[in-house]
Structures are given as C-alpha cells and as structure tokens.
Amino acid sequence: MSARDALARRLARRLAHRLAIGAPLAWLALFFVAPALVLLKISFSVSVLGQPPYEPRFDLSAGFAAFLESLRGLSLDSYALILQDDLYLHALLGSLRVAGLSTALALLIAYPLALAMAHAPRSWRPALILLAVAPFWTSFLIRVYAWIMILKDEGLLNRALAASGLLDAPLRLFATEGAVVIGVAYAYLPFAILPIYNALDRQDRTLVEAARDLGASRLRAFWSVAFPLSLPGVFAGALLVFIPACGEVVIPDLLGGPETWMLGRAIWNDFFANRDWPAASAAAALLLLAILAPLIAFERAQMREEESA
Amino acid sequence: MSTLLRVEGVGKSYGATRALENASIEIETGEFFALLGPSGCGKTTLMRVIAGFETPDSGAVFLDGVDVTHAPPHRRPVNLMFQSYALFPHMDVAANVAYPLRRQGLASGLVAQRVRDMLRLVQMDGFEARKPDRLSGGQKARVALARALAAGPRLLLLDEPLAALDRKLREDTQFELMQVQRDLGLSFLVVTHDQSEAMAMAGRIAVMREGRIAQVGAPRDVYERPSSAWVADFIGAANLIPARLRALEAGRAHLESLAGALTARIDAQTGLAPGASALVCVRAQVLRLHATRPVADNVIEGDIVDEIYLGGAVEWRVRIADGGLLRVSAAPHESGVAGRGRRVFVSFAAEAASVLPAAASPA
After folding, report:
1. B1 pLDDT exceeds 70?
2. Within a domain: residue A5?
C-alpha cells in the first residue's frame, strides 16, 4: 500500500468522523438554535403596526453600519411588559398548577403500570411496551377530541354514571381545569411509564429478596427498597410530563373553559389576537429558559451521580 | 448436638428440568456444613428452598422440628448472605445492618447498640456512614455478613461467599468466616463449587450432582472414601484403575487388573461380589515412586512421561501397563528417582486405596 493511499484513507475516515458528529449538530443548529435566535431577536424588538408587526428589521443588504444602527432599535420593553402584566403571572400560575396536577395524576397511573410491566414474564414485555406507546400511533388531536366525547355533559362518562344510578345530575367536567388535567395526564402518560419501567426493570432483584430474607414483608420490601431505588425514574418521568405540560396549547384550548388560562394560550393570544409579536416572543423565551434551567440542573446532577458511582 | 435443619426428600422442577431430586440433608446445631457441587447441580436451588424463596414440589423442610416448607422467607429464622452481597445501595453501612433489626421492631437505642456490636464483630466499625459503592469487595462481604448476623438467624446460609474476592482476600475471609462461626456457635451452611474451600471450612460436606445428594460426610471421609468414581474425581484428582474383583476378605478386596494384582479396602455398602468389574481409587499423594521393585502389597510398573514442578510438590504422570496414566505427587525432597522416560515402580498401601463400583451410574 502506498503512503498516498494511507493518507487518503485517513482523511476519508476523519471526514466520516466529522460528518457523524457534524450532521446532528447541523440539524440542531438549523431547527432549534436558529429559530430560538429569531425568537430572541423578536422578543427584543418593538411592536408596530405593519407587516411584519415589529421593528427593527435587520437588512444585511444595507451594509454593516446600517445593521449596527438598527441594533439601537432593540429594547427590553416587552420583557418589562410581561413581567408587570398580571395576565402573564396568572397564566404562569395556571400553567404550573395544571402541569403539577397532571404530572401527579400521570405518575399515579404510570407507576403501577410500570411495576406490572417490570414484573410481567419476560416474553410479554416487548408487547406491553408497544401497548404503552400505542396511543402515539393515532393523531394527538383526535385523541384530545375523543376526550371531549367522554367528558362532556351528555358524554360517555356521564351516561355511564347516570346509568349506574350513582349520579342524578351530570358531572360537570368538560370545559373545566379538571378536564385539562385529565387530558394532559393522558396525553403524556407514556413519557411517565417508560422511565419508571426502565428504572424498575434494571433493578437488582436480589435486593428485594435480601429485604424479604431480613424480615420484610412483600409490601415493606417494596417500600423500603424497590421504591426508593426507582425514584430517579420517577423524577425523569415527572420532568418529561411536566415540561411539555407547562407549554401545552391544544389541550387547554379544546378541553378547558374560559377560566383555564395557561402560558401557551397567553402566548398564542398575543401572537394572533393582539399581534404583539415581541411580547409573545419574550414570554416564549422566558418559558424556554424556565424549562431549560431545571433540565440542565437535572442533567448535571445525574452526571455527578454517575461519576461518584 | 441436636438436629437443627432437616430437609426430607425435596424435589423441584422448572418446566422439564429437574433441579432437585429427592434431596435429603440434616444439619446439626453449631455445625459448619457445605453444599458442594458443580454449577447446575441444584445446590443453589436447595439453598433457596431452605431460605424460603422456592417452594419444593415434593418433600419438606423442618427447622427445630417445625415444618417451614411453606413459610415465607421473612418468617424463618434463616438468613442468607447473597453471592452479590445485595447491600442496599441507597442506605449507608449502619442502615444496612440496622435493616433486619428495625423489621423486628427493636427500640432505636438497642438497634444502634446491636449495629455497633455487629460491625465490631466483622471489624468494620468506623465505616457506619459509608455507602456500599464506596466499599471494597472484602468490606462488602463483611457488611453483608454483619447484616445477615444482625437478623439473629438460627442458621446462616452463605451463597458462594468467597467467589467475588481475589485469592489472597479469599483465604483471609475464609479464615474469618470460620472464626465467626466458631465464636458465635452458629450453624452455617455454605454453598460452593470449590472443593478445597468446602474441605477447608466445613465440618461436613454434602456433594451434589444432577439434583441429588451424592455423598454426605466429613471432608476426610468424602476425600478418602468417596462413594463413587464421580465423587472421587470431583473432590480432588483421583487415580481410578479398572480391575476385576477376585476375592473378598474382612474389608479387603483382591483384584486383578491389567497392571497386575491389587489389594484395596472395600466397603460392604458397595455391594460388589467376586467377578464384578470395579475401580480402584487411589489419591496421587499416597502413591510412592521407587527405582527398583519394592516389597509391598500393590506394585505397578510404569514409565514416567511427565514431571511437573509445582513449588510445594512435584507431580509425575506415569504410564502403566493397562495404558492409563497414574498421577503421583510428592514433596520435592522425596523425588529421588525422578526423570522423564525412566522406568519406575509405583506402590501404595491397601489401606490407602478403596474399591468403587465401575458402573458410571449417577451418584
């Protein structure tokens, strides 16, 4: 083999290596970082009447000096506005409440399911995992619409309750915050099941046997050993439900009532009804920050734990 | 001494696999007992039946005369030191050792006292606040022992307690286990595949094969009077010389082999009659090498084909007239006649050899 061949091969390998790292990075830059930068830029702009409804606009064809000049047009006004606006505070509290309640509900349903999956015969498990994520195979919108059919006054649930004689008057669920909580918990349930299942499945079964051997009943062995060791999975599941729930738009819109006021809806409202793009962008930027910060903190904590283990 | 544990005719199947077949053992109070066998022989299953993790298909388990066959693990005065040690990773050393004490509802002052005592017993005092992932293998073994002992068992089961340790640590830990067992006067049942480990630690050994108990006895009995060729070979290398039984007289058998006439000890239990084919079992250590034909009971002529220096001993392979190889070992200073290719004479005392049935029936 000639030296030139070897060199060419080494270069090709290095190129392939770069591509393997570079492709996902480029993807992230194009579809995540770039839109986020656009959003940030708009959030620092000023709302005006016109198309687009904000200023300044960056026009690179006008030259660098003009670009620098246009930077002076940026302001923090939108951030000041939304931080002072009671409506946004209200929306933030509404989002946190709905996200918190639906996360709790999702975890309560997910944990027993994950536990049953982890203790099912090994040959059943792939099928069970498939079943857990099966709802993702139908449209998100259709599944939320289906909940309207279940929850409305003359819906499935109320008819079943009336037929069983448990209730005289229909239970008012549809167009309440309760309906939103149920809808969000349902929509993100698989995100709660899978990490908990994973944590339980990886557990060393002899630990529970040791607890039993040392005098613990089945229930006590679970609470003192299996459950605490599954908490990282519970925490991951909680984050995976809570984060998208905070920014959820469609479910509160379809299942919620007029009093259900969440951040996603507030942002939507500012964008499309008020045409105040800078304020909506500032709110979105703050929401993004509020979601990323705990996520990064969680990631760091996990890395530290893995290093110390 | 009284019988602490009695396992009676226990059988257990997993699907089509017979893991245990009519297994019976008895363990005395204060005894160090070993279940010894190759992997897959059923020793772990038997241990799990005793611990309460498996319910046998047939047979029964008695502890202090009480039938515990169907009692759950947490209702038995039996504790298990797991092969992986199974320390709770989210609890520190003190909490691990306190775990069985808290399950017994002991007052916290008493718990703390017992934890201190147990950790001192295994020389792990000072490590109370350590998490298990900060302990070495040997330290984990000690904590696991302390935790199992803290539960106050009548019988302690140890599942391959030394398998996870390196060799030097294994010898120390083995010695310490024996000391703890003697000091506390507890009954230990150790499960192992390592015959030297079983022989060093246990007062009695049950050798298991294919779900059955092949032989039970003191290490010396099992080694010197194996009940079958399989046991003889499993417990340290044995020389097995095929022969035909010619005559019997008062515990002695006279046999005819291709390598010459032999005389050996015979147990009445073997049930062999003159004319039957048999194996003469003799250990490498009791064979002697001679340069000239000695005057002795059993003399076999052969050629040295190999000489292996092992530090503490020398081992020779001697090809004899029936085509087989005899393993002979001796201390290096006794190896006067050595040398590859030399013609030698191998002799052994009739008392040092035993006659076993030739049929390769299991157990």
Report:
1. no
2. no
Instruction: List chain B residues with CB under 8 Å of A229.
Output: 89-90
Q: Nearest C-alpha of chain A: how many angstroms from B133?
A: 6
Choice among A58-62, A242-246, B75-79, B165-169 with the minimum mean pLDDT: A58-62
- Does residue B170 belong to the interface with chain A, where contact is any CB pair within 8 Å? no
Domain-embedded: residue B231:
no
Cβ(A191)–Cβ(A237) below 8 Å: yes
What CATH number does residue A103 fall under? 1.10.3720.10
Q: Does B62 touch chain A (CB under 8 A)?
A: no
Q: Is residue A142 part of a domain?
A: no
The C-alpha atoms of residue A229 and residue A222 are separated, in whole angstroms, by: 10
Distance of CA B158 to the CA centre of its chain: 13
Supply the range of the domain harboring residue B149.
Answer: 3-224
The Cα of B90 is separated from the nearest Cα of chain A by a number of Å equal to 7
Q: Do B99 and A224 touch (CB under 8 A)?
A: yes
Statement to judge: residues B256 and B183 lie in one domain: no
Residues of chain A with pLDDT below 50 are none
What is the domain-level CATH number for residue B111? 3.40.50.300
A215 CB within 8 Å of a chain B CB: yes
Same domain (yes/no): B172, B246: no
- Give dist(CA A281, CA A273) in Å, integer: 14
CB distance A279 to A42 below 8 Å: no
Q: Please, which residues 28-57 of chain A have a Cβ atom closer than 8 Å to chain B?
A: none
pLDDT range class, residue B362, cuts 50, 70, 90: very low
Q: At what angle do helices A277-308 and A34-43 cross, to 10 degrees?
A: 130
Asked casually if ipTM beats, i.e. exceeds, 0.90, the reply is no
Is the minimum CB–CB distance between A212 and chain B shorter than 8 Å? yes
Minimum CA–CA partner of B133 in chain A: A309
Do the domain assignments include residue A18?
no
Domain tally for chain B? Answer: 2
| Diameter over CA atoms, chain B | 77
Q: Which residues of B touch A211 (CB under 8 A)?
A: 88, 99
The structure's pTM equals 0.81
* Cis before A56 (ω within 30): yes
Cβ pair B104:A215 closer than 8 A:
yes
Could you read off the pLDDT of B93-129 as tens digits, one per residue? Answer: 999 999 999 999 999 999 999 999 999 999 999 999 9
